[in-house]
Amino acid sequence: PEKVKAAARKWRAENPDATKKWKAENPERVKAAARKWKAENPEKVSKQNKKDLKTFREKNRNNPIYKMHQNMRSAMSAALRGRYKALSTMKIIGCTVEELFEHLEACTSWEPWMTRERYGAGGWDVDHIIPIAKWDDDCPLQFTLCWDKSNLQPLEHIANLKKGAA
């Protein structure tokens, strides 16, 4: 079993596009496997959740710029999921929620599997073309430009994580 697992890990490392394609074509199986792993490893999940929450709280407490961007992310995400329409958030982005979806769907990075229902965890994310880290946090104009819809594009979740602040 260990040899098989090692060979599978090696193959996945050498074929990341095949793995990504399979995950995109089998979202229910991916979710089921994740649920199963979480159910079988509650201590690991709990430990990681506590670590993540501690890091998040420390950053929010100690870095007002991080907190401001995090609040924008949360508000935009909630608006895109239809939870509420944050007028001030959408005013900064420069459009309505529907116009933002239309903008994202018209982007060259939009792929056929990227549906509105697949927005978020494990599907696709809203990515900043010029990353947040590249903007001057002390300038209100740059904050607005950073969050303007012209600086936003859809990107597959894993690719967005890999891109980071680069």
Brief digest:
The chain is mainly α. It has nine helices and two strands.
Question: Any descriptors?
Answer:
mainly alpha; 9 helices; two-stranded antiparallel sheet; globular; 166 residues
Structural summary, described in words:
With 166 residues, the chain is mainly alpha-helical. It has a two-stranded antiparallel ribbon with strand order 1-2. Helix 4 crosses helix 5. 8% of the residues are buried.
Question: Can you give the helix content as a percent range?
Answer: 55-70%
Low-confidence stretches: none
Give the topology string: H per helix, E per strand: HHHHHHHEHEH
Q: What proportion of the residues form beta strands (DSSP E)?
A: 5-15%
Q: Outline the biggest β-sheet.
A: 2 strands, antiparallel
Report mean pLDDT, rounded to a whole number: 85
Write down how many β-strands occur, each being a DSSP E stretch of 2 or more residues.
2
What integer value in Å does the Rg equal?
18 Å
Q: What's the helix count? A: 9
Distance between the termini: 38 Å
**Main sheet: which strands, in order across?**
1-2
Spatial shape: globular
Give the structural class. Answer: mainly alpha
Could you outline the blueprint of secondary structure elements for this entry?
Layout: H1 2-14, H2 16-25, H3 27-40, H4 42-62, H5 64-80, H6 87-93, H7 97-106, E1 124-128, H8 140-147, E2 152-156, H9 157-163
Antiparallel strand pairs: 1-2
Helix pairs in contact: 4-5
